[in-house]
Amino acid sequence: MKRCHWLSLFVVLLSGLISSPVFAAEPEADESGLYEMKQEHDPNGIGKFYMGREIARVMGHQGALWLERPEREEEENLSLLVKLLDLKPGMVVADIGAGSGVLTLRMAPQVAPGGKVVAVDIQREMLLRLQNRMGEAEITNVDLHLGAPKSPELKPESVDLILMVDVYHEFEFPHAMVENMAAALKPNGRIALVEYRLEDPKVPIKLVHKMTEEQAIKEMTRPEFGLEHTRTIDDLPRQHLLIFTRKKTTDDE
Ligand SMILES: C[S@@+](CC[C@H](N)C(=O)[O-])C[C@H]1O[C@@H](n2cnc3c(N)ncnc32)[C@H](O)[C@@H]1O
Predict the structure, then answer these.
(1) Would you say the CB of residue 196 lies under 6 angstroms from ligand 1?
(2) pTM given for the model
């Protein structure tokens, strides 16, 4: 094989390693005025922009094995991530965009007894896969919940912690999602947002799947959400862990 063929084979293999299967669905029309559509855009994005950021394509359920790859523990230090969430028995945690449940399955034992994880995803196939994995791991304190692109459809003031790992950047309607997630938080509830660091060019992930800390804070703290940024933890190898807390209202006192 000629040298350039080897080179292109290497590039294809490499892009397979750092990418994952995606949905090719067209973005839904939206008249809220919050979003801008552009013809010229990143091929891994959907051409829809929110607060200057292009929204990424949703990762398809065919990519579940990639999410479950053993190297993820070292690449993302998932054990440390779960420790940093400060989980306690009795807590109700919502894992939004749970996928096949890599984080859900690690968190569920930490909130037992008395607590549970509500695993939310918009792909039924992901939840079915998670259901099988729960059976294998003999985990029973997980509720499976099919969400909608604009809302996880959780009850108001029902969760202590919302976790989003590698998902926020692919929400087709981030504004509606955050508004609805904020409403689902209990008065002292927190949102933990985990996104690959765009500031670090060495993090081998496609650009639209990464976010800067500044952009994430800008999007999450719009006044209408009633959320404040309370902490940034940069102890993970590749991702920011940002904590947002529900602001106190007069009703909370
Ligand atoms: C890259 S996967 C991450 C899965 C999981 N958090 C993990 O780290 O293993 C993103 C998941 O978010 C889901 N997703 C995308 N938009 C969503 C939405 N609006 N509500 C709930 N899930 C969503 C996708 O279906 C996909 O399963």
Answers:
(1) no
(2) 0.90
